[in-house]
Amino acid sequence: ATTYPVYLFTTAVTEGVEGVEVELVVNQQTSCLHDYTLTVNDMKVLERADVIVLNGAGLEDFMADALSASDATVIDCSQGLDLLPAAGHEGHDHDTEYDPHIWMDPTYVQGMLATIATGLSQLVYGDDWASHGEFHTGQLVAKDQLEQARQQWADQLASLSGAELITFHDGFQYFAQAFGLDLLKSIEEEEGSEASAADIKEIIGLIQQHDIPAIFTEVNGSDATANAIARETGVEVCTLDMIMSGEGRGIQPYLDAMQANIDTIADALGGK
């Protein structure tokens, strides 16, 4: 599994299935994969894989050469999903057509789980895959847990429908869409650089125009500009989690991280 979210979903699908070992490729604290470079250890994981489950939608462009050299079956979790166009890539020197942060919408995660289960079943059983349900057992258990949580999260944020978000990571477009939030501005600072003066001026203007009480940075991401803006405007700086790293396996760590994000937004914006 290329990334931590994909690892969680794959381990959920394969829970209780004998003869399956799931390994995580990018296994370190990280916020953004735009400039990630595969380590020797990462390469070894890819080389011994029979199946590579990837997020897709361009997220793994950094490992394109390694993937092309592998004979492993590839399962692309973005297949069949309604992808949003890329947005908020200020400062990046690459051109990504679609926003790859699909796991931040729990409804999309349900599609990812189904794609993993079907892909593994077809690999193992070929044309007879539909009559074998062990991978789909784990998928359906995770789907039920996810749907219960999604409904709870939607209820928790229902009173904030249309609330404006300013984020210092470009990965919250699907999240905002899922819960009826208005993503006014997203900007991601590359390591060693900060937002431009024009971006800072725009964000300060949006905060003042919309009377925004809080702005949001990302776990493991830069918060220098956000803190500077907070000193200028008095807004609160809160932290959200893109779930790019963590502990554990199965669907529960994802549910816990998303619940923390929902709580953070409800607390930060609920008192407006």
What's a quick, concise take on this entry?
By secondary structure, the protein is mostly helical. The chain has 9 helices and 6 strands; from the N terminus they run ααβαβααβαβαβαβα.
Description:
The chain is mainly alpha-helical. The chain contains nine helices and six strands, in the order ααβαβααβαβαβαβα. The protein has helices at 4-13, 40-47, 64-68, 106-125, 134-156, 173-178, 197-210, 224-233, 252-269, and strands at 51-54, 73-76, 164-167, 182-186, 214-218, 236-240. A two-stranded parallel sheet has the order 1-2. A two-stranded parallel sheet has the order 3-4. Strands 5-6 form a two-stranded parallel ribbon. Strand 5, helix 8 and strand 6 (236-240) form a beta-alpha-beta unit. Helix 1 packs across helix 4, helix 4 packs antiparallel against helix 5 and helix 7 (197-210) packs across helix 8. The longest helix has 23 residues, at 134-156.
